[in-house]
Amino acid sequence: VSSGKPPNVKITKDASGQSVVDIRWKLHDRAITGILRVPVNYVWQNGGALVGILTGVFGPNYPDPNVVQDFLHDFVLEALLPNFGPRTPKNTSRFNDGISGETIRLMIGRASKLGRDGSPLVELSFRGAMRTIESEFNARTYKIRIVEKPDRFGLKRRGPSGDFEQFRTFGHVDDIYFPDREFKDVFMVCGAEEIRDVAEDPSWPRRPICQHTFHSSALGALVVLSYRRLWLKDWRDIQAGAEKLLQSFPFTTSGEDAR
Predict the structure, then answer these.
(1) H or E element in which residue 176 lies
(2) Residue 157 half-sphere exposure, CB side, CA atoms within 13 Å?
(3) What residue spans of the chain are helical by DSSP H?
(4) CA 149, 151, 157, 163 torsion: positive or negative?
(5) 136, 192, 240, 249: which has the fewest Cβ within 10 Å?
(6) What is the pLDDT of residues 108-130, one digit of tens each?
(7) Distances 161 to 113, 144, 145, 175, 228 between C-alpha atoms, Å
């Protein structure tokens, strides 16, 4: 049953006739609620029909609003690397191919830049990720130890040392990459470098991925990018491309541009 409030998510068309998803969104650091307009072709479809996916995520009464929340708190986008191209009828097969590693997924979660203790939110996320990397469970289970590793792509790195043959066909452990400064504003957790990608070594049938975390000033959100580790060398360009894409989505309030 509709609450009578504007919907949190609604498929519509813009002035040019392009299908878009209007998302009720709150720019956290500015406490402004408005409509974020995202082209439908950027919305993650998980291999299914868009309306079906939205119904599954937002409930059977979609596009009625969630009566508990006045705005959406998170959503997922996808694009083609390296230029963040959207899904089109001509390239759909490349999005549905989970093996090629051409796509990037963007998980957007509304969040302040600072955590409750006043520390940067990305720094707090980094600390949690580091605790997971250094967990005793992994050390006991896989008989590994966590060590400092050589820098990669301008980033410091910690991760496992031990017998990696056990990961040739199954299981994984991760390296964590981070800038050499007190408070981390970006970090990546990726399959350990010793677990080779099949494109690097055909004897390893693996395709390690990276989870790349930063805070988006464009949307006031914590962003986690997911992409194949082969792209990690381009992490600066990838983060800049993601932020540029998010900044390109119009955000309006009371019919006026809020940016």
Answers:
(1) strand 174-178
(2) 18
(3) 50-58, 92-96, 121-133, 136-142, 235-247
(4) negative
(5) 136
(6) 988 777 777 667 889 999 999 99
(7) 34, 6, 5, 10, 22
